[in-house]
Specification:
Layout lengths: L15 H4 L20 H5 L1 H7 L9 H4 L8 H14 L3 E8 L5 E7 L7 H7 L2 E7 L7 H14 L4 H4 L5 E6 L4 H5 L36 H13 L3 E8 L8 E4 L8 H21 L4 E3 L2 E2 L31 H9 L7 E4 L8 H7 L4 E7 L4 H21 L1 H17 L8 E7 L4 E14 L6 E17 L2 E7 L4 E4 L4 H9 L5 E2 L6 E14 L10 E13 L5 E4 L5 H8 L27 H14 L1 H13 L1 H4 L2 H9 L15 E3 L5
Parallel strand pairs: 3-4, 3-5, 5-10, 6-7, 9-13
Antiparallel strand pairs: 1-2, 2-4, 6-10, 8-9, 11-14, 12-13, 15-19, 15-20, 16-19, 17-18
Helix pairs in contact: 5-7, 7-14, 11-14, 11-15, 18-19
Cofactor: Zn(2+)
Family: Belongs to the peptidase M14 family.
Protein name: Putative carboxypeptidase
């Protein structure tokens, strides 16, 4: 994911590398940044050594053979997977898609039952574990370690790993972002200590796949969604390398564990998985931390885009389209420490990201973030071990996880039609905290001849700080789950997006006429000034309305009493931070003024006539003016209040085309 606290302080071989460069595009030798602290157990990396011991050279990964100085080309990965397939009857290599540059996308199925199809796997009632590596192709040790696990389980038959196959089936994608992986350069990851040549962060259409899970613009993501929907894994890994501040930790992680995942899965994560994972990793010599950062260390940087919205069907403030978590940053900058300690913040993401998208599917996903300044060997050791311990926890009681997932699906589906319950849509880091010891490194600053100003860098001296850990979530957007949503036939493109997520829909068989439904009107719609991930975000304020809407035969009804209720709400409810309307899937509705095709010189007389003819409406209006100061000061809202109640139907401009259904009448 490469979350940027700031440009990391690097240990350079020498300033002469820079000063000797001549010309605007002069080349220098690739830098070799490194951490000022390596975990002692990482030098031995016992688990890696055990996996590699006695293995024939042709079965080793390129990382192992090169002491983690190099990483394999795509074809080498496929060749190794095919070799494993030849050596084991429990391995099947499958193709599940094609990249923009025409390369086949490969997954490796490992099953003791030879359940190499989703249908066969589901009949076994075993847990399905999905391992995904290389979604950012420069962050690449997960590719080798995933291949090592395959070899351990089914080729060299390590007893510990082989035992997993009695309880689980594995779907492993060693390399997700293939085209960018082959766009190799020693300069692609200047903030990372090896391998010597790596791929790029985005794919070849310059889309970041780990911002694409909900909108699914990239061909690679659409192929992945098909694979995921077919297999429906119970647990998922997404392997990354983060960059930023140097510290003692060798691996950090993140998961949905609050209202952002269903109640059964949430309980499993918090009561079983997280405590066990941390305990087991620390016993193996790892220093583990939640994925976050110290407040104020690196101003101007942040993580994921997120909305700061009010609950229910009300207004919403815009998310930061460029990936900066505006709500979290605002909370950090305004939060005053009450006990003199510094703040450590675990940020809140949204379903455009792997682990929050999987959480919206009620399937726990472990976001693994090893650190770019550690050696590639240390990163591989951390990545390997965190996967081993996580799989152990799953395999020790797989049915507990499967029940937790099913319970979460059922609980979400049961919320449909209940206006007294609200589903989480978005949040920010909570103000509440508890003290922890944060294992940092001391830092000093020196004046740089390049900038002429002090530049901070880290030292090898440990700096163990007691800090306020902010790892809770404050809900900023939530809403009741309707009985269903209706998508007019003309907006088939939205139904197509839902279909990519495996959402169940019905087609209406007759024209429903002009019925009255709950929907929303937008005011203050404003496009972000620069594109983000190939799209331009829209900011707006929401106003819930009840209006007549035409639903012709063939329209799409999306029942909400289904397991995918949470992901549907994330896509269709306009208060959600990653709603499709925000991503630009319905931009045409923001064109035009959006009233009745008449200016105030005609619409005000209409409202005046209505007020004279309907004293009951005037009483209602007058009461709202007196009780709602925001409404009273908004001339446009006051006029729209009358026009929306008139016989003059508003145009489609600034009107959400999708309806909430609370009572199905057809």
């Amino acid at each position: 994911m490469a979350r940027r606290f700031a440009a990391p302080a690097l240990a350079f071989a020498g300033l002469a590398l820079y000063l000797s460069a001549v010309g605007a595009n002069a080349q220098i030798e690739p830098l070799r940044p490194h951490s000022m602290y390596e975990p002692p157990a990482g030098k031995v990396a016992r688990s890696l050594a055990d996996s590699s011991a006695g293995v024939a050279a042709d079965l080793l990964t390129t990382g192992e053979k090169s002491q983690w100085e190099k990483t394999a080309r795509y074809q080498e990965v496929i060749d190794l997977a095919r070799l494993y397939e030849k050596r084991s009857k429990y391995i099947k290599v499958v193709t599940f898609g094609t990249t923009p540059e025409g390369r086949p996308m490969t997954a490796i199925i490992v099953s003791k039952d030879k359940a190499f199809t989703p249908e066969a796997a589901h009949k076994t009632d075993k847990a399905v574990v999905l391992i995904q590596s290389g979604i950012h192709s420069g962050e690449i040790e997960g590719k080798d370690t995933a291949l090592m696990l395959i070899r351990d389980m089914a080729v060299t038959n390590h007893p510990h790993q082989t035992a997993w196959l009695d309880k689980a089936i594995f779907v492993i994608i060693p390399l997700f972002e293939i085209d960018g992986h082959e766009d190799r350069s020693p300069f692609n990851r200047p903030q990372q200590q090896g391998p010597d040549i790596t791929g790029t962060r985005p794919q070849e259409q310059q889309l970041n796949l780990n911002r694409d899970y909900l909108k699914a613009d990239a061909p690679e993501m659409r192929a992945f969604l098909k694979l995921y929907n077919d297999w429906l894994p119970d647990f998922m890994f997404d392997n990354h390398v983060t960059d930023g501040a140097d510290y003692q930790y060798d691996v950090t992680w993140d998961m949905t564990q609050h209202e952002d995942i269903g109640p059964g899965s949430r309980a499993w994560v918090n009561n079983r998985f997280v405590p066990e994972l941390n305990k087991r990793m620390e016993a193996d010599g790892h220093l583990v931390s939640p994925y976050g950062g110290l407040r104020g260390d690196f101003p101007g940087t942040g993580g994921a885009g997120m909305a700061n919205a009010t609950a229910a069907r009300g207004t919403i403030a815009p998310p930061a389209a460029g990936g900066g978590d505006a709500a979290n940053r605002a909370a950090r900058s305004s939060r005053a420490s009450t006990n003199g300690l510094r703040d450590f913040n675990v940020e809140v993401f949204s379903p455009r990201y792997s682990h929050y998208w999987s959480g919206a599917r009620n399937r726990p996903c472990l976001l693994v973030e090893t650190h770019s300044l550690k050696t590639a060997k240390t990163r591989a050791w951390s990545n390997y071990d965190i996967m081993v311990h996580s799989i152990d926890i799953v395999a020790e009681a797989p049915q507990a996880l499967r029940k937790a997932v099913r319970d979460s699906d059922a609980a979400d589906a049961a919320m449909a039609g209940h206006k007294d319950q609200q589903m989480f849509l978005g949040g920010k880091t909570a103000d509440t905290s508890h003290p922890i010891v944060y294992h940092s490194l001391k830092r000093v600053s020196e004046v740089s001849p390049i900038t002429g100003k002090p530049v901070m860098h880290f030292t090898a001296e440990k700096d163990d700080l007691t800090v306020n850990m902010h790892d809770g979530v404050e809900t900023t957007a939530a809403a009741p789950v309707p009985t269903g949503f209706l998508i007019p036939l003309a907006w088939k493109s939205i139904a197509d997006e839902l279909a990519l997520q495996g959402v169940v829909m019905e087609r209406t068989t007759k024209d429903l006429g002009d019925q009255t439904f709950d929907t929303w009107r937008f005011t203050g719609a404003k496009k972000q000034p620069t594109p983000f991930e190939g799209r331009t975000f829209t900011d707006y304020t929401l106003q819930p309305v009840t209006e007549k809407m035409h639903m012709p035969a063939g329209s799409y009804y999306v029942p909400m009493n289904q397991p995918r209720a949470r992901i549907i709400m994330a896509m269709l409810h306009p208060a959600a931070p990653d709603a499709l309307v925000r991503w630009g899937f319905m931009d045409a509705i923001f064109e035009g003024f959006g009233r009745i095709g008449a200016g105030e010189y005609l619409s005000v007389p209409i409202a005046t006539r209505m007020a004279a003819d309907h004293p009951e409406l005037w009483a209602e209006f007058d009461n709202k003016v007196k009780s709602d100061s925001t409404f009273a000061e908004d001339a446009d809202a006051r006029l729209r209040w009358w026009i929306s109640r008139s016989s003059y139907q508003p145009s489609a401009a600034n009107k959400y085309p999708i309806a909430e259904v609370w009572t199905k009448t057809w």
